[in-house]
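RECORD TYPE: inverse folding
INPUT: structure tokens
STRUCTURE:
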């Protein structure tokens, strides 16, 4: 996940990382992406393009089932589960902090090979994917409310989110030190006291 769509006044002046601005009489729709990993695709025609129709089902849709997740994990059996959660072709919208939050809530070690998850762990992972997506939409994205302009959002202290960023953070559940390492090519935070590797 990268980039952000925002709505501004029609007088909005382009900033350094604004890569696309669509102006109307009433608004400016701005795509800003400091990391430049995102992209915008256009399509003209009466039918939807394949890049749209082949998007993975949303995490909160009925098509995102535990059975579908289990099958995908088996296809990526040797990859660390952290890396698999970041694969947008099955887990659309899951970014780095969300993957850490999901795994922490499910008590699954981020380096655990995806194919070794037990059926109960797969079900828990699926449930937590949906729960974190719902919480992120309601709490961070401000679904149903208007976001404050400064984006000073109060994240509950019971989330890993508030404790994962700096060195010396403690697990909100065990109160033990959190660990940080690169797993699956991304900086990862987890609770060794809660998330243990198994065979």
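DESIGNED SEQUENCE:
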């Amino acid at each position: 996940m990268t980039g952000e769509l925002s709505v501004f006044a029609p007088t909005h002046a382009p900033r350094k990382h604004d890569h696309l601005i669509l102006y109307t009489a009433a608004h400016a729709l701005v795509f800003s992406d400091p990391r430049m990993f995102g992209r915008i695709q256009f399509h003209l025609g009466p039918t939807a393009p394949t890049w749209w129709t082949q998007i993975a089902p949303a995490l909160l849709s009925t098509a995102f089932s535990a059975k579908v997740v289990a099958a995908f994990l088996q296809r990526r059996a040797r990859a660390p589960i952290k890396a698999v959660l970041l694969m947008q072709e099955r887990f659309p919208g899951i970014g780095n902090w969300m993957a850490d939050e999901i795994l922490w809530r499910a008590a699954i070690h981020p380096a655990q090979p995806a194919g070794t998850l037990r059926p109960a762990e797969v079900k828990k992972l699926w449930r937590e994917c949906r729960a974190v997506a719902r919480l992120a939409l309601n709490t961070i994205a401000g679904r149903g409310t208007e976001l404050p302009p400064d984006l000073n959002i109060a994240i509950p202290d019971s989330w890993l989110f508030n404790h994962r960023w700096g060195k010396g953070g403690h697990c909100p559940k065990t109160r033990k030190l959190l660990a940080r390492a690169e797993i699956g090519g991304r900086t990862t935070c987890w609770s060794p006291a809660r998330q243990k590797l198994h065979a």
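NOTES: The longest strand covers residues 18-23.
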